[in-house]
Design brief:
By secondary structure, the protein is of the alpha/beta class. The protein contains 15 helices and 13 strands. The strands form three sheets. Strands 2-8-7-6-5-3-4 form a seven-stranded mixed sheet, sandwiched between helices. Helix 4 runs antiparallel to helix 12 and helix 6 packs parallel to helix 7. The longest helix has 26 residues. It is globular and about 60 Å long. The chain starts with a helix and ends with a helix. Bound molecules: pyridoxal-5'-phosphate (PLP).
Length: 383
């Protein structure tokens, strides 16, 4: 799109300029696709921060029971909201449930942002949020990472009279890093009350064990909306169900804007089953902690640069985007699908989900081979 096109006012164009500027979302490659492309028998998918243990059996059972009720419209997540309120000691008026935490994020963007507002976050923030904010057509400002973490003091300095919404993911996707309780409290003191903060805790169950992790349920800040999801630790990514906590005044307006029949009744039943299955959740967290330790140890032994992670994935940092792309393609040829991060804004990085112990080993072996091949090629190129 040319600069002249950008200057044409929105009402003169069928598609507004900020929508034309968006890139279509690239879904992860499928295992079947890679098997066929490279003639492989074994392919593993570590691209999408999903649960490597699959779905909680209890969630599956509740889903199957709910299918017979599909002729009825659901009640907008009310049963789940009540359950979550009971679990976390809140009023139901403080809780929202919707089609994924991204569904709630979309409603926050629609509900609170006016045309001249500005959104503030870190560079290369979670891609889902980038798309939602940019598709609203508001100013989108970022500050750089510091050691692959949100630089909260610099973010606070960047708040302007136009800033309406700040997006923080803790732990963060794609870096995996988290900010501490002290850093968050200091930051919050500097945020005016009129500015809303989305505190996206999609990976909080994995980070809870960190003593300095600021579980947002310890706070009752009127301008903070906490978002959580059933997509990760509960293994319900395809069901599309997430939840949020906030002051009742914020939740009540979000409830006005949200689509009345989301989340679906089937997704809600799955979530209720998942909440009952504490054993599955704890097993997932334990598998992740072991897997993270294994990956970090082996990657560092290999001499790879890895961002510090408290989530269910690690981010590998390469010297340049060519090497990251080379490693991505080499891994594909060896049957490992990981996530290139060019679309997020980090073309020299790859994100790798923690898998089962067997998957983690398969990945490490494949990466070691790819790395050796790449070194041989770079020596050949120098020669
Ligand atoms: C930080 C972050 N927030 C939100 C989501 C999306 O969660 P959901 O599946 O609940 O929409 C993800 C998924 O990758 C994520 O990484």
């Amino acid at each position: 799109m040319s600069k002249a096109d950008m200057q044409i006012s929105c009402s003169e164009m069928v598609v507004p300029p900020h929508i034309l500027a968006l890139q279509p979302y690239q879904p992860g490659l499928s295992v079947e696709e890679i098997k066929q492309r490279f003639g492989l028998e074994k392919v593993i998918n570590l691209a999408s921060t999903e649960n490597p243990l699959g779905v909680s059996p209890l969630a599956l059972e509740r889903t199957q029971q709910a299918l017979v009720g599909m002729s009825r419209y659901p009640a907008g997540g009310l049963i789940l909201r009540n359950k979550l309120a009971e679990l976390f000691g809140l009023k139901v008026e403080n809780v929202i449930a919707d089609a994924g935490s991204e569904g709630i994020m979309a409603n926050i963007v629609r509900t609170f942002l006016c045309d001249h507002d500005e959104v503030l976050t870190t560079e290369a923030a979670f891609q889902g949020f980038q798309v939602l904010a940019r598709s609203r057509g508001v100013a989108y400002r970022t500050v750089p990472y510091k050691d692959w973490k949100y630089d909260l003091p610099v973010l606070a300095d960047a708040i302007s009279p136009r800033t309406k919404l700040i997006y923080l993911a803790n732990p963060n996707n794609p870096t995996g890093s988290f900010f501490t309780r002290q850093a968050f409290e200091q930051f919050h003191r500097r945020v005016p009350e009129r500015v809303l903060i989305i505190l996206d805790e999609a990976y909080y169950e994995f980070a809870m064990v960190e003593p300095s992790y600021p579980d947002s349920m310890h706070y009752r800040f009127d301008n903070v909306i906490t978002l959580r999801t059933f997509s990760k630790v509960y293994g319900l990514a395809a069901a599309r169900i997430g939840y949020g906590f906030a002051h009742e005044d914020l939740i009540s307006v979000l409830l006005k804007v949200k689509l009345p029949f989301e989340p679906s009744g089937v997704a809600e039943a799955a979530a209720l089953g998942a909440l009952e299955d504490r054993e599955f959740m704890l097993r997932t967290v334990a598998n992740n902690a072991k897997g993270l330790a294994y990956l970090n140890r082996n990657l560092r032994e290999m001499g790879m640069q890895v961002a510090p992670s408290a989530a269910n994935f690690v981010m590998l940092v390469f010297a340049d985007s060519g090497r990251a792309q080379g490693a991505f393609e080499g891994l594909l040829r060896r049957g490992v699908i990981v996530r290139p991060l060019g679309a997020t804004g980090l073309p020299h990085c790859l994100r790798v989900s923690v898998g089962t112990p067997e998957e983690n080993e398969f990945f490490i072996e494949a990466l070691d081979r790819v790395r050796q091949e790449m070194e041989m090629h770079s020596y050949a190129a120098v020669d």
